Each structure stands twice: as C-alpha cells, then as structure tokens.
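Hello, quick one for you while I still have it in my head. A protein chain has come my way and I'm curious about its shape. Can you walk me through what the tokens say about the fold? No rush at all, and the record is pasted right below.
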Amino acid sequence: MKKAGLIIAEIVVVLLFISPLALTKPINAIPTDSQIYLAEKQIHLAAYNIAGNNYFKLRDLAYALSGTAKSVAVDWDVADSAIYLTNGLPYLPLGEEMAGRENNDCLEALPANFKIYLNMQEIAVSSFIIGGNSYFRLRDLGTALDFGVSWDNELRCIRLEPDQPYIMDIEELSPPLPNTEAYAREVVYLINEERVKKGLTPLDIDTAISAAAYVRAEELKKEWGHMRPNGSFYYSVFDEFHVSYYSCCENIAAGQNSPQSVVKSWLDSPGHRESILGKYNKIGVGVFEVDGYYYWEQLLVLEHK
C-alpha cells in the first residue's frame, strides 16, 4: 500500500579514505518565453527558467511594481554585499531597468551569495548570476513582498497581481513540468544550497551517477528499500554505469510531490541530513512518477582517496 511522504534511512558504503570535495558545475538557464502580465497589462521582463522556476532581475520587478500597492525601494550596500528592500517606499530607477535580453541563448547560471533584507530583516531568496546579471526566483520574491503570482494555463502566461496576496500553495510559475529531470536538478540545487549555508562545498552533478539514480528510482516502485529487485544491494547499479567510488550513500523517499518537500523530509531526518552534509563530492538524483505519485532517489558518491 502506498504511503505519502515515505523516507528511509540511508545505507553508507565506505571503501577507502576521504578526500576533498569537488566544485559544482554551472546550472543551465533557459530563456523564459512566456508572456508576463502585471494585472491586465503585458510587460516585458528578462527572465530565465532554472529547474522549473522562473528567475527575474530584482530591479525590473521593483520598477514594474512601482506605483502599486506593493511598491518597494531597492538599495545596494557595497560594504556588506547586501541588498536592502523597504516596503511602501517609491522605487528610484537607475535607467537600466526593463532592458530585456540580448538574445534567446541558454546561459550558464552560478549561485549568488547575496544577503537580502526586507525592512531590515534577512529573507531567503534563491538567486543566480546569469550573463553577468543577478536574477532572483520569482516565487521567493512573491512570498517576501506578498504580491500574487499565478500561471494562466488558458492564455499560457505568468500573471503578477500587486493587489492580491501571494498564495502559498502555488508551486509552479511556468507551464507544469512533467520533466522529472527538472525536479531532479531542483533537488540538487536545494541540497547544495543547504551545504553552502553550512560552509560546505556544493556537490558536482555526475551524468553516470544520475543515470544510475534514475534506474534506482524506477526500481523503488517494484522493491521499496535499499535492496534491488534482483536481490543485490543498491550500489550494484554503479557497475552498470561504470561508476567507481571510494564511498557512497543512498537516500530514498516516496510520496512527496515537489523537490522542496522531499528535501525538507530528508533534512528533517537526522540520518539523512548527516549524509547530505557528509564528505561526498558527486551526486545523482532520479525521479520516477506514476499517476502523480513520485519516487525519489539520491545517490551520493566520494570518488577516490
């Protein structure tokens, strides 16, 4: 019988000694081609999609919201490398807002490490450097500034509603993504975000390990646990993809309906949290979906001594 929100304690395999962690690779940022409306007026904002989430320039949004009930002032503190937002104050434009994109090329995105304060209180906003500019996750800004964000499936557009509150149960701000790869990349992003908070090096996404994780995710439907349907332990899947390792770990879950919820489940479990913050340098995540029910697989690997 299916149970919502299942997680299971990880199994760790250690073969040799522990080595330093590797740096992460840039994440692919895809230009967002959806139309964007502020209330009933179409606006043109540069935006990119990363792992199913839309990212916008903060000053573009502040400029668009200027004169509305959700007007916000934006200030940059060079000394602190911090952004300060203040509700209810007019936005002072710099003249570079609403410039749009130079082209429709996919670009590399690297996590940004800005501190952001709203009314002098630090807030959590996911951000990336894309093409030399800072982009911020739209739903995080909607939550912080409390403006409505929704996806109009009939018109295929993103709607920003400054006269409406942000509705917390809206998870997708772009067309629904059945693409489990986008979910897998978001899981990696959230895990690396937590590692960075703890002063650890982000994990490197590995293609072969990711392929192995997808095999294991599908196997979880047939055989729940760290044993494979053929009776072998989970790590035997590495042989099929020629993955060599010094130590490895598997975390699994089922029933969570978003990357955010599954990562929260893992982080709330002491054993899983310990492995996520452990001394590994590679990661692969697989997601398998059956009729809206998700199986989540996470493989952590330390390659060599």
Notes: Residues 180-197 form the longest helix (18 residues). Residues 78 and 114 are 11 Å apart (CA to CA).
